[in-house]
């Protein structure tokens, strides 16, 4: 149980530190999907 909690804390720390990078990559992915959608119309 303690291993799971420490693993969760580690993942939470990584997300908090890299939140802007995750948001940046998600924005690029959404833009590419939108471009593909509008290009196929």
Q: How far is the first residue's CA from the last residue's CA? A: 51 Å
What shape does the CA trace take? elongated
Classification by helices and strands: mainly alpha
DSSP, total strands: 0
Q: From the alpha carbons, calculate the radius of gyration and give it in angstroms.
A: 16 Å
Contiguous low-pLDDT stretches (5 residues minimum) are none
The H-and-E topology, N to C, reads as: HH
Mean pLDDT: 84
Instruction: Give the number of helices.
Output: 2
Question: How much of the sequence is in beta strands?
Answer: under 5%
Measured as a percent range, the helix fraction is over 70%
Largest sheet: none
Outline the structure in words:
- The chain is mostly helical.
- 93% of the residues lie in helices and 0% in strands.
Properties at a glance:
single chain, 41 residues, mainly alpha, elongated
Précis, in short:
This protein is mostly helical. Helices cover 93% and strands 0% of the residues.
Detail the topology: elements first, then pairings.
Elements lengths: L1 H16 L1 H22 L1
């Amino acid at each position: 149980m303690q291993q799971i909690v420490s693993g969760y804390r580690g993942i939470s720390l990584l997300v908090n530190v890299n939140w802007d990078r995750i948001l940046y990559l998600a924005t690029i992915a959404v833009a590419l999907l939108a471009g593909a959608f509008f290009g196929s119309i």
